[in-house]
Amino acid sequence: MPTNTEKPLFIPIILGTARQGRESEHAARVVFEQTKKRAKVETELIDVRNLPMRLDDAGEQMKDPAFSATIERCDGLIIVTPEYNHGYPGLLKHALDMNLKEYIHKAVGICGVSAGPMGGARVIENLLPVMRELGLVAIFEDVNFGHVGKLFDEQGKLLDQNYIRRVDKFLDELIWMSRVLRHGRENIAPV
Q1: Looking at 11-152, which runs of residues are DSSP E strands?
Q2: What is the Cα–Cα distance from 88 to 8, expressed in whole angstroms?
Q3: Predicted confidence (pLDDT) per residue in 110-125, tens digit
Q4: Pick from 124, 112, 121: nearest CA to 82
Q5: C-beta of residue 26 within 8 angstroms of C-beta of residue 75
Q6: Closest to 49 (Cα-Cα) out of 94, 10, 11
Q7: What 3-state DSSP class applies to 53?
Q8: Cα 14–7–132 angle (5° rounding)?
Q9: Mind listing the pLDDT tens digit for each residue in 6-62?
Q10: What share of the chain is helix, strand, coil (3-state, %, to 5)?
Q11: Is the pLDDT of residue 5 over 80?
């Protein structure tokens, strides 16, 4: 049980596509709004569209100090990503690769978005080995935003409120895991 003096968790959300007309932005905003409602949790929405990335280099060679500081500070991470041709956007991978040690022993939850019925299940499956290689600890809850074109109105308002319950269950697990891993990072020396 958290104490009243425990510092808030910091759990940013990464929107993993820069495409024009991206419907995953609506899903990211729903997750962001639900995360902001959580007591003792701070968050921010990171849009890969706004990260300074060069296309003629990769990895830590193009590390952005502000993005790295955000990832270093975070206790957990949420990735909201569309599924493109059964995979994740290349720009998301390019952005994730800018950091390495900053991810180690931190929790991550993934929300998949797709136009079809699978709700990004394949993109989540494809990202799990990447998360593990980066040193992140993936939670077992996911949120799958399927048929995304029918989930939101023209203004981006969620039409199916059942997703709020799904996001809340996802956040419960991510917050718990983030708290446990922060305790471990702060109190248990690596061997």
Answers
A1: 13-15, 41-42, 45-47, 76-82, 106-113, 136-138, 143-145
A2: 30
A3: 999 999 999 999 999 9
A4: 112
A5: no
A6: 94
A7: coil
A8: 40
A9: 899 999 999 999 999 999 999 999 999 999 999 999 999 999 999 998 878 777 778
A10: 45, 20, 40
A11: no
Write the DSSP string, 114-168. Answer: -SSTTTTHHHHHHHHHHHHHHTEEE-S--EEE-SHHHHB-TT--BS-THHHHHHH
101-160 pLDDT, tens digit per residue, is: 999 999 999 999 999 999 999 999 999 999 999 999 999 999 999 999 999 999 999 999
Nearest to 46 by CA among 87, 89, 97, 81: 81
**What is the pTM (predicted TM-score) of this model?**
0.94
Q: Which CATH number fits domain 9-185: 3.40.50.360, 3.40.50.170, 3.40.190.10, 3.10.450.40?
A: 3.40.50.360
Q: How far apart are CA 107 and CA 103, in angstroms?
A: 9
Token digits for 181? 């891993």
Q: What is the mean pLDDT of the chain?
A: 94
For residue 74 the two structure tokens come to: 């975070």
Q: Cβ neighbours of residue 38 under 8 Å, at least 6 residues apart?
A: 171, 175
Q: Could you give the C-alpha distances from 128 to 6, 72, 110, 161, in angstroms and in order?
A: 30, 20, 9, 27
Where in the chain are the domains?
A: 9-185
